[in-house]
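Dear all,

This email documents one entry for the complex benchmark we are building for the journal club exercise. For each entry we list the sequence lines for every component of the assembly. Then comes the predicted three-dimensional structure of the complex as a token string, followed by one or two observations. Please use this as the template for your own entries, and keep the labels exactly as they appear.
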Amino acid sequence: MIPLAAYVAVSAVLFMTGLIGVLIRRNFIIVLMSVEIMLNAANINLVAFSHYLNSMAGQMSALFIIAVAAAEAAVGLAIIIVIFRGKMATNVDQINILKW
Amino acid sequence: MMWFLFIYFATVSVVAGVLTVSLRNAVHCALALLTLLLHMAGLFVMLNAEFLAMVQIIVYAGAILILYLFVLMLMNLKTEEQHLHKKHSYVLFASLGLLGELLILLMLSPYGGTIGTATPDVILNTGPSHAVGITMFSDYLLLFEIVGIFLLGAVIGAIVLAKTPVQTETQQPADSSTP
């Protein structure tokens, strides 16, 4: 029987990987992919606790997180397309028109 | 056997996550993300969440990742010389320290909680997908409807954002014949 701590550790490592990706990558699309990694790490955590605490609530939350991730991907990629059409750039340090 | 499967899925997930963050070519990053999602579905199966594993493969690997790949191919990005920020080493060291702190805190915490009624035997009696459906359409019905409307709004917003801007006739009367 695998302890709950093992799943939680995997989830923590993946979450920090995604966070590092958000912070260090320059390409906006890969920043969004790192956000997907973080959402997946949260999903693993929720499902593991749902299994070990004998409750369905964690699986339900994971399903809703997947729906939110789909919406985030759709809107985020649409925003990237709009920016790319105007500036021909997808690097986050070139997109600074809101900076003052 | 369970340990072998767990170590396989966990190791490949973590390695694929690191590759997603560190690879230079964006399409390779998307493929590493695909590996990560598929192995995470394996972890879900090990946790008795078969329905969620199938949803993960169909929605994440089948829909969301294809959307990313489509956008990557539409933009036709060249592989860049500098794919990380200039000062990324500071962030890396700080994050690794934070990760160690987080792991120590997690290993010390007791993981207690209220035990529910959906034990693995009960779930296996009714069937995993059946149990998920019963819970979703009784306790979580309002959330389910809200998520439906939310997705509709997101899709309409994405279409409106990504639509090609129409040239008005007052600005460019010469181009009015071509669409």
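Observations: Chain A is about 75% helix and 0% strand. The CA atoms of residues 22 and 31 of chain A lie 5 Å apart.
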